[in-house]
Amino acid sequence: MRFLSALMLTVAVAACAVAAPAKKGSLELKSVTALAFNSEGVLFIGDSTAAKVYAVETHEKTDASKGALKVEKLNEQIGGMLGVPAAQVAIADVKVNPASGTVYLAVRRGSGPSAAAVILTVARNGKISEFGLKDVMFSVVDLPNATDKNRAEAITSLGFANGKLIIAGLANEEFASTLRIIPFPFGDKAAAAGVKIFHGAHGKYETQAPVRTFTTYKIGDAEHVVAAYTCTPLVKFPVGELQSGNKVTGTTIAELGNRNRPLDMIVYKKDGKDFVLMANSARGIMKISGDSLATNEGITTRIADKAGVKYETIEGWKDVVQLDKLDDTHAVILIDDKKTMTLTSVELP
Amino acid sequence: MFLSLLVLLAADPAAITLRVADGKVVEATGLPESFKHKTLDDWAAALRVVLADNPGTALLGTHTLADGTLKFEPRFPFAPGVKYRAILTVDGRETTHDFTLAKPKSEPGRVTAIFPSGDTIAENTLRFYIHFSKPMARGDIYKHISLRNDTDKKLVDLPFLELEEELWTRDQMRVTLLIDPGRIKREVKPRIDLGPTLEEGKTFTLAVAKTWTDGDGTPLAAEFRKTFKVGKSDREAIDPDQWTLAAPKAGGRDPLKLGFGKPLDAGLVQRLITVEDAAGKPIEGTITLARNESEWSFAPVRAWPAGKLALRIMKHLEDHSGNRVGEPFEVDLLEPVGKPVDAATSVTRSFVVK
Q1: Biggest CA pair distance of chain B
Q2: Domain range for B156
């Protein structure tokens, strides 16, 4: 008992977001900071400025896109399309529609408060198009404090598992974590449960820390969230237990150490085994064995460097800022070397 | 016969004009009659608008033809200061028109305040707010901000949590910086390896470089520096029962005054403490902070009613170190506070106005 490894999760607020059923209409994004898909090709769009998450039907056909992908000077091309220099283009997220294989980009044009938000698609032949938001079937969830003058919440990551949308956010005022879980389709009176995540991984102290990025991963029959925190630990907790009234125990599985800014994560299967890939500001791409995620009992003592699960660093993948699974054997990665951006498919290691 | 018809239909190059109407729409006139019968794709191929230094990619937009004028409206408005080129290709002949919208003249912005405002701040300070006089540019902000350890004469390496989302207000006039929490929390690896970012007893300077531009691309008027001493860590929960409270007199509009005993978060304290009347309805008024966010006063819009009133304090109110109402930033699991799990989101403290 000297050092505790448990994470304590308690469901805090019964209703902190309001949703409405799908309707046909046009969307005007105020910002876009995160994207996600469910397996049927519904695109979830996190609009931090509007404090909303939209769910949009893409109606894309299965396997519309196949083959390798490489787009060089992506930011210049997008800048050319949107009418601004490449430096005024920011790509907040890259996600692949699992229903079609098309790559979606969350793009900001400009840097002032009136900067535009746009969703672009990239086909395997490199053709970039706008994903139009006029006359689409969509539904929406409002996050709290949408109208407060100063308080805003950056939606840092979106994910989908067990029929539920998971929203990770970081507020510009209070630090306490806000992870929200909402069933999809958003019902008439659907409400997202806000989950407080106490972080007790470090030994005797625990805090309510925000999740930086996460992915979902099946361990046995249970979907889990594998999440990276702002203070660098990697943790897992079961999605099924994130319900009102439950007290959930999760586990810290690795400490990443200083200078490690977790950027993005995916899970994939290779040669019958599961792996997690994490893009990271300091260590490049980390590859973590799923077996050790499933069996790791958590860090229970003060830890040496690279403690917890075993991982390897994938050489040759430099400056990767975004990644997503393209198909069973490939990932798509966004490389930003601060001069130019490249979007390319790579074989999963 | 066929030849002469071609000549007749060919464009008169002298008659073709390209212009930008109201800085919004590119218009081509003097086109040959045959243009009417062409398709949308043909129009799009004939009139392209590009960035002058990136001519390979055409701007997204809409083409229309009416009364002999081919128009192109860009998907997003033309940006001031960017050099565009309209290229019209008719019968293999190219006409171009370069244009740049003038940038609006704007006064350079400046830093108006940094919170915490005190000259001495806690070693485990979690959050700074930087306020600007006008909306600033987002994206890549961390290169403009530095933290220097003046006592040891060295720059602090990666002092802030660098989030690509950046924590702005909607008007982009205030940005939040978080000190890397891995350097604040005890027993996490970054702190074990490197120690805390701010060190008690030492002097630091937070600098905002002049290179930071506003939303229109104009740099700040001047660099801004805030020098402060670092004091003891604050690991105590906020306890509203310990606040000093000076109740105003009924019938007047003198402010209600609170003394927190320590500085609280400058952003949260403006919206998470409200004053309620006997029926629990919020009373309208103006909040003023003093003494480095450790004092709060509330001047009502209408005169104070007599009777029992209450302060409502949301439990997610924090101080500069992330300690909350009834709950410190770090809960010591080995010394449980013994409080039952409390689902309430706020606490109240009543006072009497006579």
Answers
A1: 105
A2: 111-231
